[in-house]
Amino acid sequence: MILADVLSNETEIKTAIKNIFFEVFSNLTEADFSWEKEQKDYESWDSFTQLNLITLTEAKFNITLSLEESIGIKSANDLFKCVISHLK
Amino acid sequence: MTVINYLEENVKNYPEKMAIIDDGHHLTFRELSQKVQDFSSIVATLSEKDVVSLVSENSAEFLIAYLGIINSGRIAHLIPTEISEQNLKNQLKSANCGAVICSSAIKKNLSNFTSIKVPVFAFNELPSEPTEDVKIPKKNELAYLIYTSGTTAEPKGVAVSHAMIEFTTKNIVRILDYVESDIDLLPLPLYHSFGLGCFHTSLCVGSTLVLLKNANNLQNILESLKRYNVTTLAAIPVTLTKLLQFDTSILEDHFLNIRLIMTNSTPIPKNTVLKFKEILKKGHLATYYGLTEASRSTFMIFDEANHREESVGKAAPGIDVKIVNNHDDDSKTGQIWIKGNNVIKKYWNNPEADKNLVDGWLQTGDIGYFDEEQYLFLKGRNDDMINVGGEKIAPYEIEEIVKQISGVEDVAAFGIKHEVFGQTIKLNVVKSKDSDLEKSEILTHCMKNLEKFKIPTKIDFVESIPKTDYGKVKRFMLK
Question: Which residues of A touch B (CB under 8 A)?
């Protein structure tokens, strides 16, 4: 069963996205995480990190993001909105 | 001439001129030279071994340490900041280094690497000035050591000599017209040949180097162009392609005074070249082809008169490049071989890898062809290496990690075309019978055990992996 099938509301989706951030940024702590925190504020958010965020998101939600959508992700909030738009 | 001689010349000619600008430091050539002298005396007390390892994000401290290690008569072993514990352990053992010098942020990470037994010193743990008079030993013929992925999973050590640096730097300066009045913006990692070569170039002509931590913040790159009146920028093709998301008018405004953008030989999308040709009103985009073993072997300046947007240019002066084709057909395509003073004489303690060097020729493993005017075009790799945004990855390394996962019976990793990175990694995975393994579990395992540029972007579950009678994966069938 894919994750999207069991996520019935936005809170669960948010939790899943937050977990993706913690998996991709191995040194990220609860205190460092914020939905609004932008790419430029992360020391290690480079092109490869961006690619990994998108790849893990696609696998967990069974969706495919376009290049334009992928490039446009600059924060956890951006990723959340993007996932919601695909699951609606 | 060595890079230390470059620095001494600049101290003589422009002592108070700004040499390095980064977040926390503005250093004149005189100040830089003093700090390098002090650092080399400190390094000399850390270890008597020939090699000292350096791992740090881009910073003035990195450059002081790099030059200080060289000035102490030692070889600077440059390590990527994202290195895994296993790779670091392998490199330190192969390099036989006496000490690791790093930033405090890296020291924090290294403290989790329990298998690393070499003494590790953060910059801020070293005395700011030498505490004793130390005799600097003889100059070393070699300057730095970088490990590059080979055709097997074992990284190969590439030790670059002062003579190679001098030869390559002179070519860069001559071909791309670098001058003392340039202000060079560098958002590239200094532990790579591309970024390091840019630093050597700035030091050679006495220009000012504006150092950025990385290329993550595109807005910061654009702002820095204006803030520091930058004249040259070095960036990988991915960064240049991403910059195109800004309005053309914004880019034209910020790149108004740029005379040169230097990029490297990862395939650069033709559209990116065409767009930057339009954006640069007073300058040019240029690229080169080279390996750590044979830096800057060809150069290509994309100008209006030359419409070879997909070429990496012509061989640099003093360098021979030839195509070796063992097929019986008339194809002009074959393996690229390089010979010249930019080519290593041998690998670092690696007789097996030395077989790639034949009578001074380096067999690159890259495939290409020349057009009728001797412009070189790249077509891919001779072996199975995957090139993700300039990072070369052996499939074997990924496969070994994925095979550790319970529920994976077999796996093959290979490169697939990617619009921005040139290539990314795809996995074909055969699951064990009754396994309910999910793709996200494979990714999570990879993220825990591999550097971030080695993470697959696509996974397919398949029935079987095509193999030869000897059990070797038929990779050409996967592509």
Answer: 2-3, 23-24, 26-27, 39-40, 42-43, 45-49, 51-52, 55-56, 59-60, 67, 71
